[in-house]
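Below sits the subject:
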Amino acid sequence: MGHLDNKVAIVTGAARGIGAAIASKFVCEGAKVALFDVNISGAQDLAYQINQNGGSAVALTCDVSNPKEVETAFQNVIEHFGKVDILVNNAGVIRDNLLFKMTENDWDTVIDIHLKGAFLCSREAQKYMVPQTYGKIINVSSTSALGNRGQVNYSTAKAGLQGMTRTMSIELGPFGINVNAIAPGFIETEMTKATAERIGMTLEQLIEISMKDFAIKRVGRPEDIANAAAFLCSDEASYVTGQILYVAGKPTI
């Protein structure tokens, strides 16, 4: 038996990277998963793999910054699976630049997808979680919340998710809903490759430089975040809420 047997989980930004790893881990733990992404072909590919291997998944197009798309996607999950037990707000983009070069569009895009998206999805999820007096919400933050050169928009969004996590845990706790955040450090994904390109490095060079500060001498993997998410969404973590779990391979302040 898995730790998430008979649970229904929604994972945003699920087509690749951390989102795909979380969805796959949840399936291994017994959950049924809804994969939200604007990259519908990637989400469909993952859903197909899960279903072919005996799991249960559905892929749904969803721009998390669009309230109508969020509402519709949640309704489709209810029609398909009958309930919502878990929400992982993972969808995100980067539009990195130094402050004096950053455009309003760079700022708006990152804030809308990370922060507004998490707000809209969480607001929709609680409509279903409150009546059943059960739910788990995970917000994917980042060590960039502590500050990172060239990421004033991304750092602000990820820090905002931590404040959102603490506040939602206070509001939703009386209804049996746990809300926590995971703050990944350096995780090797397509987004990390894009960061390397932005600063004029290969991914290998960025890894070599970054690892000098790691206590654990290896790069992080999407599965590291998925394992943390599976624990926080299990009943074993039923007394854990409002927490920010840094998964970074080193101490954080």
Summary: The longest strand covers residues 177-184. The chain has a mean pLDDT of 96.
